[in-house]
Amino acid sequence: MNVNDFRYTGKGNFKLSDFPTKAGAKKEDKAKYKALTLENTAKMAELQNRLYAEGKEGLVVIMQAMDAAGKDSTIKHVMSGVNPQGVTVTSFKSPSSLELAHDYLWRAVTALPQRGYIGIFNRSYYEDVLVVRVRNLWKGYKWPERCMDASVDDFFAARYNEISNFEEYLYNNGYRVVKLFLHVSPEVQKERFLARIDEPAKNWKFSSSDVKERALWDQYQDAYEAAIAATSSKHCPWYVIPADQKWMTQYLAGEAILQALEDINPKYPLVTEEQAASLGDAKTLLENEIAPGVAAPTE
């Protein structure tokens, strides 16, 4: 199973229906892919240490999906082995009044990790071309008329262009952007919603608004298709990850992130001759000390 089979770089026509929600793996393969996910996590941990030590590039992982596609569990399992000191996770919910008083990319910019870190965006600025489009929320913005004087298609075409330019800007300033769309089927979403209702331990995950959003399934699929088609590029591709089998979703998501880290190929900083000499002096002192801060007597 190759994650690049689910990668779209903007070349050729894009249709969401051309990408499967199930990768074709059999249930008996579950243990194998879980083991591979653990192996990838170990590789990511080593690369993350080097990324942090080098401090030259940052990695931004964007996860978008319909409800119940498994974003939270994917983040939990894929990132379980990395050092939390070098990872930030930001969940983008409905914007606050402060966020609405700024441009729509502002809250994403404030959440960017510093170079050397991995930043996970659970949802992102893409919500501003998804739910904002489906729900026509942009029409209620407190904006000057000149910003509203456009058709729906022209308004969001401008946003796609802005997002593409923003991601290219990030790439040119030392960031890699990995964009994952967890592609779940309506049948599996329904099963997971029912499980959240039937299992008391999962009740907290369910909201009546989930069903209302589900009623707009086709509109959201169209919005995702348009956004992915318009914002995929060589440097910032989209991965349309099958999400009907969570263990396969986690494996493929990990593969995409690992691939980005391997492409960065971070290295531990080289030690200068002066630093090497200083390390040698420190080693000698430590080897000859009697107690902390007390050096052995010289003859």
Q: How many angstroms separate the termini?
A: 67 Å
Mean pLDDT: 92
Number of alpha- plus pi-helical segments: 12
Shape: globular
Percent of residues in helical segments?
40-55%
Radius of gyration: 23 Å
Assign the structural class, choosing from mainly alpha, mainly beta, alpha/beta, alpha+beta, or little secondary structure: alpha/beta
Low-confidence stretches: none
3D structure, described in words:
- The chain is of the alpha/beta class and 299 residues long.
- Helix content is 47%, strand content 13%.
- It contains twelve helices and eight strands.
- The radius of gyration is 23 Å and the shape is globular.
Layout: helices, strands, pairs:
Layout: E1 7-8, H1 30-54, E2 58-65, H2 71-78, E3 87-91, H3 97-100, H4 106-110, E4 118-122, H5 131-134, H6 145-148, H7 152-172, E5 175-183, H8 186-198, H9 208-214, H10 217-231, E6 238-242, H11 246-264, H12 273-288, E7 289-291, E8 294-295
Parallel strand pairs: 2-4, 2-5, 3-4, 5-6
Antiparallel strand pairs: 1-6, 7-8
Helix pairs in contact: 1-11, 2-11
Structure, briefly:
The chain is of the alpha/beta class. Helix content is 47%, strand content 13%. It has helices spanning 30-54, 71-78, 97-100, 106-110, 131-134, 145-148, 152-172, 186-198, 208-214, 217-231, 246-264, 273-288; strands at 7-8, 58-65, 87-91, 118-122, 175-183, 238-242, 289-291, 294-295.
